[in-house]
């Protein structure tokens, strides 16, 4: 009898979970409360209850080659960084290509997820669903939780004394859609995550003044790296990860910090973070808007009066609007509290996927992690692992081992990123996908690759760590992976080469040319020297210099 798997949510995690179930021979049913796929990438003009909401101008901050699913590159004409509508288009292409739609029940909300009364023996789950007001029950062998964790706004009102007296308007960034209401206003944006960065920059073009209030600061990096290449493609590489893990942490942290602060002096712009390796904000315009004075960076908020904000440095600003871009709380309203314990977004999950203390390894959470990299390949590898565990083809270690792994990784994370609510889910991207790929035997074996396919090995080790690397071997191997890796730069450059020029003839004086000419000349000298040596009995090596060096260049042969 086949294993019935329930999938809660048809966003980027739920879609790949369906596909992974099918690949492992499981029987998926995906419940989606809205009438479309895409989760947070499905933009709506108004905020919908229990659904993530994004603003109109969101663009991705990871590039298309780094953020696609591992066996489905984005179309080559897609821009390098994508508007949310393009991501939704891509998700539709993915769902159509792998025929996933027929497994999704739309407008079906999961109201509760409970262990069956004989859970300890059967491992079954009872799911109560609601479709257009009609309730129903289903029984499943395993469950993927893919409901996203960006729909419950985090706004700790007690951190902002006097807010109740403030006569201006305040909202959480979840409710921000466009700039239109803010023309000519004085606005305070609270926070320095990506939402705060994007919103303050957008408003800085039309508001009278924008204040950006930050408690702990943040690194700000551009999407664009040297030569105009995407920053994640230049930074996220296996050999740099290897070096980082090899060096003493202090030194590696110093180097990473230097890299993150190389664009501009963060102290001068008031952004220097308190936690040294805090997750960076990706924003191409924030520094220039600060330099232009359209955004003024301020410390945290001390209190509110009816018309103004008093910052922690004692300065006061009269303001019309406040936007709290203070992040989100993970919630699972359908789940019993004793199944997972949420503590300020912190959940004890083995490798951010499996609850440690469940009797059966048949409940998996996808996307409850914040890697320093793209989320789509991250949730995909989580789903591939979990589907194999559900099938019984991969095993989880003992509770003791999982506990010890959680403690160790928490300790490591705290040392790297600092302790705080914003840092709870942070991980190094390549370390994390390596960790999971080893669980299911799909980790690329670089040494073997150097012997069998040196060109590919070079790209895998020294090139961007694109998701295709996770399809080179093992279960789920994809025959197109090698070619996808070798052509990743072509797809990156293609959409921007829209004005075709006659390329400047390449200078003949390149290192390659010098090496080739050098080798040819050496070969020529050697052959002539050998011919002379055969006549004279001495080999004259092609060494030039003073006459005594010439003497030492004469070597007796045979
Ligand atoms: P976030 O990354 O969780 O950032 C929340 C911010 O709120 C932090 O700067 C935090 O400051 C601040 N904060 C929290 N509690 C506070 C308090 N009591 N007082 C003052 N400040 C407080 O949230 P987000 O920016 O909404 O981002 C959510 C997720 O969406 C992230 O994964 C983000 O990368 C993603 N996102 C992506 C894009 C994009 O791709 N373009 C755009 C927006 C969001 P401290 O650091 O000082 O704690």
Describe the structure.
The chain is of the alpha/beta class and 558 residues long. The chain has three domains: 263 residues, FAD/NAD(P)-binding domain (3-Layer(bba) Sandwich), CATH 3.50.50; 128 residues, FAD/NAD(P)-binding domain (3-Layer(bba) Sandwich), CATH 3.50.50; 44 residues, no CATH class. The chain is built from 18 helices and 28 strands. The strands form ten sheets. It has a five-stranded parallel beta sheet, covered by helices on one side. The protein has a five-stranded parallel beta sheet with strand order 9-18-10-11-14. It has a three-stranded antiparallel beta sheet with strand order 4-5-6, with no helix packed on it. Helix 10 runs parallel beside helix 12 and helix 13 packs antiparallel against helix 14. The chain is globular and about 100 Å long. The C terminus is likely disordered. The site of NADP nicotinamide-adenine-dinucleotide phosphate (NAP) has 26 residues, from helix 5.
């Amino acid at each position: 009898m086949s294993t019935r798997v329930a999938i809660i949510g048809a966003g980027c995690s739920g879609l790949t979970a369906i596909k992974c179930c099918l690949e492992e021979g499981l029987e998926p049913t995906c419940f989606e409360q809205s009438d479309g796929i895409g989760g947070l990438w499905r933009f709506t003009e108004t905020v919908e209850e229990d659904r993530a909401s994004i603003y109109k101008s969101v663009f991705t901050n990871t590039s298309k080659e780094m953020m696609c699913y591992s066996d489905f590159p984005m179309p080559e004409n897609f821009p390098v960084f994508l508007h949310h509508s393009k991501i939704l288009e891509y998700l539709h292409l993915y769902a159509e290509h792998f025929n996933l739609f027929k497994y999704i029940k739309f407008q079906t909300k999961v109201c509760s997820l409970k262990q069956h009364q004989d859970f300890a023996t059967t491992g079954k789950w009872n799911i109560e669903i609601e479709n257009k007001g009609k309730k129903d029950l289903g029984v499943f062998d395993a469950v993927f939780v893919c409901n996203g964790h960006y729909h419950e706004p985090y706004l700790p009102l007690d951190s902002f004394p006097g807010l109740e007296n403030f006569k201006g308007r305040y909202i959480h960034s979840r409710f921000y859609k466009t700039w239109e209401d803010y023309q000519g206003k004085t606005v305070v944006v609270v926070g320095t995550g990506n939402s705060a960065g994007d919103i303050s920059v957008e408003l800085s073009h039309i508001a009278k003044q924008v204040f950006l209030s930050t408690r702990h600061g943040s690194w700000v990096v551009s999407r664009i790296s040297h030569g105009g290449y995407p920053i994640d493609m230049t930074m996220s590489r296996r050999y740099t990860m290897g070096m980082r893990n090899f060096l003493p942490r202090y030194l590696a942290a110093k180097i990473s910090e230097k890299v993150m602060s190389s664009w501009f002096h963060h102290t001068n712009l008031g952004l220097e973070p308190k936690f040294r390796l805090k997750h960076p904000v990706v924003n191409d315009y924030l520094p220039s808007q600060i330099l232009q004075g359209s955004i003024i960076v301020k410390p945290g908020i001390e209190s509110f009066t009816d018309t103004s904000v008093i910052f922690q440095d004692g300065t006061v600003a009269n303001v019309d609007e406040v936007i709290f871009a203070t992040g989100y709380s993970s919630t699972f309203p359908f789940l019993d509290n004793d199944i997972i314990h949420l503590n300020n977004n912190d959940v004890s999950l083995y490798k951010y996927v499996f609850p440690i203390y469940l009797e059966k390894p048949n409940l998996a959470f996808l996307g409850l992690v914040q890697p320093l990299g793209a989320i789509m390949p991250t949730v995909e590898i989580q789903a591939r692992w979990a589907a194999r565990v559900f099938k019984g083809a991969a095993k989880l270690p003992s509770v003791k081992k999982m506990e010890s792994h959680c403690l160790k990784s928490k300790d490591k994370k705290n040392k790297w990123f600092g302790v705080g609510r914003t840092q709870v889910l942070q991980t190094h991207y390549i370390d994390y996908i390596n960790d999971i790929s080893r669980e299911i035997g799909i980790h690329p074996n670089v040494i073997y690759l150097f012997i069998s396919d040196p060109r590919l090995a070079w790209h895998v080790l020294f090139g961007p760590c694109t998701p295709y690397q996770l399809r080179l071997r093992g279960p789920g191997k994809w025959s197109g992976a090698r070619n996808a890796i070798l052509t990743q730069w072509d797809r990156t450059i293609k959409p921007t080469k829209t004005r075709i020029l006659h390329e400047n003839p390449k200078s003949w004086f390149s290192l390659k040319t010098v090496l080739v000419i050098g080798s040819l000349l050496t070969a020529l000298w050697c052959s002539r020297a050998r011919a002379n040596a055969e006549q004279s009995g001495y080999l004259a090596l092609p060494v030039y210099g003073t006459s005594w060096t010439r003497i030492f260049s004469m070597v007796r042969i045979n």
